[in-house]
Amino acid sequence: MEKKGDLLNQLALISDLIENLNADIKSNTIIFEVSKVEFERVLEVIEKKYNRRGQKVKNSFTISIGKIDVIFNTSNA
Fold this sequence. Notes:
By secondary structure, the chain is of the alpha+beta class. It is built from two helices and three strands.
């Protein structure tokens, strides 16, 4: 299945849904484990959007969307 749509728009939709869940949630964190190639692609999208280049990112980074923390992880294994 082909994946379409802007990554940040999709994350915003997911974050909005989670913020409005009808449940008492203690931690609003989403963790994505991705391949090294996908990690680099997502990091590039985030850096371009927020004009944040030059930060040394190894295997993990976090962005906050509303009240939701989104973590992207990868491993070199």
